[in-house]
Design goal:
This protein has a two-stranded antiparallel sheet. It is rod-shaped and about 65 Å long. The chain has two domains: 34 residues, no CATH class; 61 residues. It has 95 residues and is mainly alpha-helical. The protein contains three helices and two strands.
């Protein structure tokens, strides 16, 4: 696991304000900034489509992103359902 540091530093001294030094901003591999396989495939397919290497339809090119988004939505619905069932069960216990 490698961490890349990127940040910007602008000195307060008026003489060197023009010299903005770019240092590093912390981008951690655990921070959710990484691209998954679906995002990588989508980018590759889009590049191949735009360079006319493949002649697929756009829905097929974007299918990895569509599947990934659908899975995220499904997980969200399941989580909300579990929360709703838990809340209802807790209300019934109090009665």
């Amino acid at each position: 696991m490698q961490t890349i540091f990127l940040a910007s530093y602008v000195p307060y001294n008026a003489k060197i304000q023009r010299e903005s030094v770019i240092l590093f901003t912390i981008i951690s591999s655990n921070g959710g900034d990484n691209m998954g396989i679906a995002e990588v495939l989508t980018v590759i397919f889009i590049v191949l489509k735009l360079t006319e290497v493949i002649t697929w339809s756009w829905w097929l090119v974007l299918l990895p992103a569509i599947i990934s988004f659908s899975i995220y939505v499904l997980i969200l619905i399941v989580k909300l359902g579990v929360i709703m069932v838990t809340v209802v069960a807790m209300k019934k216990r109090k009665e």
